[in-house]
Amino acid sequence: MTSHxxxxxxxxxxxxxxxxxxxxxxILLPALAAARKTARAAVCLSSQRQTAIGMHAYAGDxxxxxxxxxxxxxxxxxxxxxxxxxxxxxxxxxxxxxxxKATAFYCPETVDVEGMATGQTGTDPLLPKGWMDWxxxxxxxxxxxxxxxxxxxxxIIRVSYWINADNPIGTSKVFTPDTYFTxxxxxxxxxxxxxxxxxxxxxxxxxxxxxxIATADGVYAGRQSDNKVGSTNCRIGYRHxxxxxxxxxxAFADGHASVVSxxxxxxxxxxxxNIDAIRAENSFSRPTVYADPEAAYExxxx
Length: 302
Hints:
Blueprint: H1 11-61, E1 70-71, H2 84-90, E2 132-134, E3 136-139, E4 142-145, E5 157-159, E6 161-163, E7 165-166, E8 182-185, E9 213-217, E10 247-252, E11 257-261, H3 275-281, H4 293-300
Parallel strand pairs: 1-8, 7-8
Antiparallel strand pairs: 2-5, 3-4, 6-9, 9-10, 10-11
């Protein structure tokens, strides 16, 4: 009886098999990368929702005040400013950790760059997608993380979200209370005749909480007029896919979180852009940066 050994692959068959496997890998890798990106965006959205819940818990324990973007005691920021994330961490609402990415204050899609190291994001499109460490203080045109042990801030927290706050730090400026979601409490004094200091915003002052942006992908606070992709010193980090150059995950004042595309993200008034166009961006059916959009329009239109 003649025995037959199993037929081995020929070189051509082996090369064809390898080519098919390479082709399949080439097809699967982009799909896997897209799936990972979607998963990271979902984690970011969940983190925004978690911070919104933490802010509401803070308000419930503090006479319905909105958490400040930070507390300060001058106009320059040359003294340590605590920051909303360190406040939520210190007071037990959301746990933080020392300069780490593994907290609710850090989006997994964050570009690993210090977004506000020189005081502004300038024209670099990556800086708004970066992070900032808090507590923080300003020296000249630069920002530095600092501890404030006498006030219970014993660790530096890495934050990659922007908060919608009145933030005229660095200049003495007349301000309108309750303009945005929150403010830099203690800022002042503003020029005469106001001679005022920023105080806490209360949730009762927020006219459209379900539309009012509280936090978003990005860095620091303020500069609401520069929210569009390509704007100098934009602080909104459009880290996710979306129309008009990406999208930002956003937490709203009522506690829910959603996605806002770069095309739909509203700007604030600055006396330069078309006032009616900005009013339309903050209209009733859309997200807004204003606690009371109609009042803000009346002030801007004077």
